[in-house]
Design a protein that fits this description.
Length: about 450
């Protein structure tokens, strides 16, 4: 894909900050822009701006991208094309092209007749006053201080911002439990959210009231609760798992084998580093799982040889990366000190087991780093492969974790052991898998003394 210049990259990220785009979405916005620039270089001749964007989105839709992702892609492209005059976009990006592409005569001709600018979309959130902005910053700081996950940080900030909009951004000192109650009730009554979504909003406001506003937050039964549905996870048969694995190409077959063979969450699997694989003890060590908890799971015997091959590939890739003058190593955990992260980022033990193909530019550091494989790409591969394997169930990466637990339960593995392998804090969470396995209990009354 075409790379953005460092200057364009910085401008684009600044614009995304101004539009309140969440930090975890920014890499995806950049990715869509790079896809669009590739598309433009191939199919942009003779097309107006609107026509080219429409054709680009149509192609994404044809490749199976959801409406939400297509909308995100369109917004990413429109924001990019509406930066200042140095990036004009369609059929020739003004006087400065993306890295590695010098302006041609056709580009100059296109710039002579500037395409009409496309009006940027309105920000998704209303602008906050200083009072609410300071509250959100305090919330972010407190969450980071407690070392909560980035997903929790993003979700809590989002809910507090939505709560501020609902409250009309009245002074924070005037916010009461009644305002919180009305907001949560509206989520259930007007927005028809599911129970888990309302609970997440409830916890975000609970954190806001207790740790930022320093007030009691006791809503009790005064909030209309969203209806709780009985959820039974989708579970594949062993034959369906094998059929999908047979149709997957490298490296996705190995990734899915780890998801199913170890019962990992997708983020846990993609976040594995070379040092997390212990071949002597046949263990896979999971660091910073859900709730920032560590655990270890048995390494499947069938995968030992292929995992060693994978680490050999990673080692060779690292050797090639180290020859680049601007290679900064792998992205490192936030928990490490800055000095240690910088000194150890190029060591083999910190490299990803499933690295991304390309390097990622880090403008603030002036270097390129390597990230792990991308979740979205794996999701696309799994959905397409399930169709090829003629599996009619809805299959996601998490389906293999469900299948791992259900198949162990069907093999009479103790429920507490399965809880430990999955990293569940509460046995009640693990007990959901009892609904996916046929009961094998004896119904006649007997004494265990007679077994």
């Amino acid at each position: 894909m075409i790379k953005l210049s460092v200057e364009d990259f910085k401008k684009y990220n600044t614009r995304l900050d101004n539009l309140n785009i969440p930090a975890h979405q920014k890499p995806h916005y950049v990715k869509w822009v790079r896809y669009f620039l590739d598309f433009e270089s191939k199919y942009g001749a003779g097309r107006s701006g609107q026509e080219l964007i429409a054709a680009f989105i149509a192609k994404l839709s044809g490749k199976g991208q959801s409406e939400g992702l297509c909308a995100q892609a369109r917004r990413a492209v429109v924001v990019y094309l509406n930066l200042d005059g140095s990036v004009s976009g369609i059929n020739g990006r003004s006087t400065r092209k993306a890295e590695g592409h010098a302006p041609s005569d056709s580009d100059a001709a296109a710039n002579a007749v500037r395409q009409p600018r496309i009006s940027p979309p309105e920000p998704e959130e209303a602008p906050m006053d200083d009072d609410w902005a300071a509250t959100v910053r305090a919330l972010e700081g407190e969450i980071k201080r407690r070392n909560y996950s980035k997903k929790t940080l993003s979700a809590y900030v989002m809910w507090v911002k939505r709560f501020g909009v609902h409250a009309g951004h009245r002074p924070v000192a005037e916010i009461t439990d009644e305002a919180a109650k009305d907001f949560l009730t509206d989520l259930a009554v007007k927005n028809n959210v599911v129970a888990s979504t309302q609970n997440q909003a409830f916890n975000a406001l609970l954190f806001l009231f207790r740790h930022i506003l320093k007030r009691e937050y006791e809503l009790g039964d005064s909030v209309v609760r969203a209806k709780t549905s009985k959820y039974i996870p989708t579970v594949l048969t062993r034959a369906e798992v094998d059929a999908i694995l047979d149709h997957l190409d490298y490296p996705f077959d190995l990734i899915v084998s780890m998801l199913y063979g170890c019962g990992l969450r997708l983020s846990e699997c993609l976040g594995l580093r070379v040092g997390d694989l212990d071949f002597e003890e046949s263990l896979v060590v999971v660091h910073d799982g859900k709730g920032k908890k560590d655990r270890s799971v048995p390494m499947p015997k069938k995968l030992r040889r292929e995992l060693k091959r994978q680490l050999a590939r990673v080692s060779k890739q690292l050797e090639r990366d180290l020859e680049l003058p601007d290679f900064g190593g792998a992205f490192m955990p936030d928990s490490l000190s800055r000095r240690r992260a910088k000194s150890e980022a190029k060591e083999l033990r910190w490299q990803w087991v499933f690295p991304a193909k390309g390097l990622t530019l880090v403008p603030d550091e002036g270097c390129y780093r390597r990230y792990h494989n991308y979740k979205q790409l794996l999701g696309q591969q799994i959905r397409g492969t399930a169709k090829k394997a003629k599996v009619t169930k809805r299959v996601t990466a998490h389906t293999f974790r469900h299948s791992f637990a259900s198949h162990l339960l069907a093999a009479n593995v103790d429920l507490r052991t399965i809880q430990e392998l999955l990293g569940h804090s509460d046995i009640k969470t693990t007990m959901i898998y009892t609904h996916t396995v046929k009961s094998r209990t004896k119904k006649e009354m007997v004494s265990p003394l007679d077994f």
